[in-house]
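Thread: "does anyone have the structure for this chain?"

Original post by V.I.:
We have the sequence but no experimental structure in hand. Need at least a predicted one for the grant figures.
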Amino acid sequence: MNTKYLLLLILPLWWSCTDNDDHYVDVPLEFKVPSNFPQPTYDFAGNPITQKGFELGRKLFYDGRLSSDGTISCGFCHEQINAFTHHGHTVSQGVNGQTGTRNSPSIQNLAYQTSFMYDGATEHLNLQPIIPITNPIEMNGSFNQIVAMMNADSEYKRLFAAAFPGKPINTENMLKAMGQFLVMVTSSNSRFDKYRRNESGGTLTQEELDGYAIFNQKCAQCHATDLFTDNSFRNNGLAVNPIVNDIGRYRVTLNEADKYKFKVPSLRNVEKTKPYMHDGRFLSLDAVLNHYSSGIVDSPTLDPALKNNGTLGIPLTADEKTKIIAFLKTLTDDQYLTDPRFSEN
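Reply from O.Q.:
Generated one for you, tokens below.
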């Protein structure tokens, strides 16, 4: 699904006037870029982040009424304590007990990403919520009904008046508010970050440092920079599930070269985001590393980084795996996992 089709989904917009509450005072929210991060790609000028816009976006994120059965919110599949993933579920669950085909990805550092969803179905964060909201298995929501609900809700009327004074309660402003919340959900204060910035609490053990060195040698080509992703799409050699036959990026581009390619996920907070891979097939980090060392399945679109002089995979000893996992656990950001700004209450 490309962006032009996403835009069609939100038309026609429902327009209605809100109470003009001049006494609501809104203030800009500063988006801070950590010194060990690259520059963000999000268009802040097109959607300036404000306190009230953020609060409105947070309420929308946790509101089950955006779904057809009134129970499935964005936060249902993206739980903060589990780095905004659906812990214990291989694939996401939706309305009426339905199950999808993909694992819920973590929500973090979206301001630095250039595309969203495992297949890159949209390149605009403000439009990303359209996909799960309208998906018949996930939320099965109707924007017409959602806008009608918000216009009849006194709390939404107050929040919209504060965040978008003089502007209507409509789909456009709803999505802007959700974008403001999502872009602020950042993870940048793990022990590894403090190590990189020479801050207090940033001490790594020798085992963790060894793991970092091995990681840089054998994993960082795809999981690049301190964001731990290069935002690319790659076929990482997973055996294809014939029942689902998820063709990945090809669904968007219809380019044969993109078959079975999926977006490289960030490894931040990876200790908390099991199960792993786009379909949640691996239940531990050990299983993930075993896949890369001895489980690669060849195919025409297999990433060249996984072909080493005719040998498939990444050579890893048992000791190297142990050290890599020790390093990966330094990427857990407890502040992000417990930050009350991102929680429902």
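V.I.: this helps a lot. Residues 1-22 have pLDDT under 50 and may be disordered.
O.Q.: and Strands lie at 233-234, 262-263, 307-308, 311-312.
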